[in-house]
Amino acid sequence: MRGDHIGIRMSSGQRDLYLAILATLAAGAAYVPVDADDPDERAEMVFGEAGINGIFTDEGFRKLNPSTGVDQDEPHLEDTAWIIFTSGSTGKPKGVAVTHRSAAAFVDAEAALFLQDNPLGPEDRVLAGLSVAFDASCEEMWLAWGHGACLVPAPRALVRSGMDLGPWLIRRDITVVSTVPTLAGLWPAEALDNVRLLIVGGEACSQELVNRLATSDREMWNTYGPTEATVVASAAMLQPDHPVSIGLPLNGWDLVVIDGEENPVRPGEVGELVIGGVGLARYLDAEKDAEKYAPLPSVGWERAYRTGDHVRLEEDGLYFVGRVDDQVKIGGRRIELGEVEANVAALPNVYNSAVAVNKTAAGESVLVGYVSLEDPEAGFDHRAAKERLAETMPAALVPRICVMDELPIRTSGKVDKKALPWPLPGVGIEAVGLSETEEWLAQLFVDVLGVSVEDGDADFFTLGGTSLAAATLVGRIRERFPTVAVRDLYDHPRLGSLAEIIDATAPSAQNVKKRHVKPVGAGTRLLQFLWQLPTMTLTATNWLAWLLFGSNIAAALGVDFAPHTSWPLVIVFLLVFASPLGRIPIGAFGARLLTAGITPGNYPRGGSVHMRIWAAERWSDASGARSIAGATWVLTYARLLGVKVGKSVDLHSLPPVTGLLSLGEHCAIEPEVDLAGYWLDGDILRVGAIEVRAGARIGARSHLMPGTVIGEEAHIEAGSTVTGEKK
Prior knowledge:
By secondary structure, the chain is of the alpha/beta class. The protein contains 21 helices and 36 strands. The protein is globular.
């Protein structure tokens, strides 16, 4: 009921997760999300601090404590809508409560920003791929719910998988994406072809990313805002080759840049960004709330949130410069180094410690904990330390550990973080006896993870690899071996095993037999030339039919020089040569006659079978049958070619001119699927039949090779290639 706090801890990518959030809000309660992958200890701490009355899990809803709320249907504006915990500098996460007033203001303010010429609506589909424990997920959800659009949940592992996400976005017609620049940078540009609104935030956005993803057909926005100010406080539309700013405040939000004396700075100067206005949230800890939301007398604000971010004030908006304190962002997640340092300092046998953020050679930000030991002779158990840290912190906060004799100290007595070693001492390939592929992969492990590879059994994830690091590594591998997928790394994370997979799918050049392919003979080229005469004549009949029709109309209007042709003849010409009623049968029957008797098999390039298939395609093109055989006529065209079409088939791609295709009942073929059923392998034409059985679905832009059989109810993802078995 109204005023209760309800915990949410459910697996990502499922509908029930978002239904649980909506149900909680509809009841007037506040939802308290914890990522399903976070340690149990963190979940217990978060739910304990928030004082939850019940919890949604994958098993359903469970009531924990008696309700403390009010039995009333609708929440009040000052009631809490959600409580999200952020990283804390003391080592303890901080609970931030956002009211319905702030949440509603956020939804309204963003609606006034994006796509004003063609607003979001029911036809849009919004990607939901961020953790609901991350406040940016609120933007995803309300971009959909605030405009009647469809929210499309995706497993987070898929969102972080880089190139593997592309077919998923295309197949589900995603038009709106809100994400962090790190993830957007992993995706190929074509994955966003259908996206008309792209929002990035949570960390600095590079000019290179803007130049690649901001197009004339897509609005791209950079948003900025801490959890403490309700998701987003400012935004800027991004343009290629224009400086990347964090923009101007949202409607209802107030921003000011102050100097060390807390006075506003002048344009062109750098200072700390402070936020006021309707978006201000509150900490559950009243003492911390009073400290962090203290008044700002210089501008007359009773409550103001000091962000700790240094920005430069310019006439056209704000430009992010860096952090004032030790707070950092990795993969869009805001992290207080103090929380990580507190946990590292608590590890057994640690005397002194510090945590820093470093960049690997591959450009990935990683946390590194530097420790000196209380008893050097007792040593340090890296595996046990990692397991202990993983029990108390989310995976994103677990650092790799570097043991040092002593840490560099400043005169103030604090650790001199600038003097901490990076890359880590001795990092490199220590393994011996590696194959050429293993040696190459080992160097990629070192580049991406910044750790040593000691042997061929080195496990990518044991070495500290994350899903983001996995996507980065696979992207590097694909530069040489394009067919490698992220799932290959998850299935074979060990160095030697992954190398075997790569060697098996991409044999070395010396093992490939060279073939000499002769060009087609002069006789074949002559026949191709001669065949153009009837096909061009057929094309001309369409124009002739319309010319006769236009001439008759002109003659009827009194144009003296316009000849008149018998109307019945003109109508026959129009029906036969200018309408689908005539053009589709002409194209289909002509192609069927030309390819009659062709069966699956291998034929010489330029031979009679090759020429007949080529001629059939040219004839179909000339008749216009293939250009007008759209969704309305395509099944008719397919049947006339001899394709076996079952009941209730949904076909949106062109059938093969050979007719060697069988479509089972209720199967679906999405647009731009290659069903040709033949391909040229050097000087060999390989022809085969294709069978798609009942209930199967073929994703857009897929390629079914000759001899392919798709089983019942099978689902082929968009952009896939399916090869037929060799008989």
